[in-house]
Amino acid sequence: MSRRPSARYSKVLRFTVGWWRAIRIAGLVGSALTVAGAPLRGALQHEATAAEGQTLHVFVNKSVVINSETQVVRMMTGNPAVIDTVATTPTQIVVTGKTAGVSSFIIWDSPDHSQILDVVVEPDISALRAVIERAFPSQQINVETDGARIILSGAVSSQRIVDDLTKMAGLYSTQVANSVTVQTQGELQVMLEVKFAEVDRARLDQLGMNILSTGLTNTIGTVSTQQFGPPMLGGGGGSSVNTTTLSVSDILNIFLFRPDINLGVTIKDLQQRALLEVLAEPNLLALNGQKASFLAGGEFPFPVLQGGQNIGAITIQFRPFGVKLDFIGTIIDNDVIRLHVAPEVSTLDFANSLTISGFVIPALSTRRAETEIQLKDGQSFGIAGLLDQRAQAQLSKVPGIANIPILGRLFSSKSVNRSRTELIVLVTPHIVDPVRAGAAAPQEPRPPMPYLDSPSFDKTIPGNKNSLTPRPPE
């Protein structure tokens, strides 16, 4: 007698117990697949190996229903950790997948007759396939299962996608076999145009004076702070002179002289401004995903004290300095370039140097940035704000007199040097497709020429007998 499946089952799939073939049955979330079976035959063999049994595929956390027109007197599960079996009626068995794996399931219709089922519980990869399809619609990716293992195959455009696929599949199974390969990008290369601009804003303020006198008896005498180079006085010889020559070393001086009191003074009030741009424009070319480096500068030696068996010995090593750039460019989808850029500008700083065993070791003044961004072919980005500000002040004065309020400023000089340097880095990546062997070189763009390129230039001038007839359209 055949049992009619209840209304709560959404689908019906016939399953003949005793047929030696493998079929695949998948359950639905919140419902089950009903399998209606034929009566167990009396001629069933007493023993059946796993290879001879039928194979039943079930997804994790989903169920299938096996219906039989004959009553099942006994059943046994080989691996209870993989599947769970429940006999809801004497002729109906529900098999639920608990975790990915394989288990045998034996059903008896009589004490001497049995049937073996190989139950394979697999992870449900339908959601994984949908996520991969949405994330990488233009890639050729296949997702399959082999028991508890998820197998990824196909070809993608970058190694980053391969790594992302492994992470995504790892959310569904701990056993992931990733055989996805990276397609050759047709020898595509990445060219990086970099512009280093160093803007130096220096300001110098100087204010001071030098006082000189020929003395009461025409003897030469000077009072100076010795900062800007005092004027040089010279006479005809001896301690008393009637004529005196004056030499001023700096033309940016104001000279005042009172002959009635034999007193002169040079005043220097100077302001300087500077704006300097130092540019380095390297163009670097590297294979897709490979590293390229650039250095415009040099290497300075510094001593290194050895230890161990060579303790006390000094060796020389070299450290680079100057304008340096390291980058890795990777081409991903839709002509997008992922860049890892590390620009650096360093100079030798002898103001903070060290002297060890007679060696002067300069310090390094370094401005460095490191970032990872994504740009389209031809887009640019800039790194700015790498500032170096310095201020240096120098005060010179005549002891004693310079300490007199108000009047003492006439016997002192002050120099303030302020510098502010800003580094600006502009980066523009390009995708380069080299010319293949035997292919024609690309044509350089040129402006349209009359009678050669555009028919719109071929116009007849009315009344001109020498004008040419327009070229007929092609």
Description:
Strands 14, 15, 18, 19, 20, 26 and 27 form a seven-stranded antiparallel sheet that branches. Strand 11, helix 2 (159-170) and strand 12 (175-178) form a beta-alpha-beta unit. With 474 residues, the chain is mainly beta. Among the domains are: 11-121, Sandwich (Immunoglobulin-like); 126-182, Histidine-containing Protein, Chain: A (2-Layer Sandwich); 203-273, no CATH class. It is 5% helix and 53% strand. The two termini are 83 Å apart.
Features:
single chain, 474 residues, mainly beta, Immunoglobulin-like, Histidine-containing Protein, Chain: A, seven-stranded antiparallel sheet, five-stranded mixed sheet, 27 strands, elongated, disordered N terminus
> Major sheet, described briefly?
7 strands, antiparallel
Order of helices and strands: EEEEEEEEEHEEHEEEEEEEEEEEEEEEE
* CATH second-level architecture of the domain at 11-121: Sandwich
Give the fraction of residues assigned to helices: under 10%
The number of distinct β-strands equals: 27
For the terminal residues, how far apart are their CA atoms? Answer: 83 Å
Determine and state the CATH class of the domain at 11-121.
Mainly Beta
The mean pLDDT is 71
Spans of at least 5 consecutive residues whose pLDDT stays below 50 are 1-52, 233-252, 451-458
Instruction: Give the overall shape.
Output: elongated
Strand residues, percent: over 45%
Predict the CATH topology of the domain at 11-121.
Immunoglobulin-like
C-alpha-based Rg, rounded: 45 Å
Number of helices: 2
Query: Which class do the helix and strand fractions yield?
Result: mainly beta
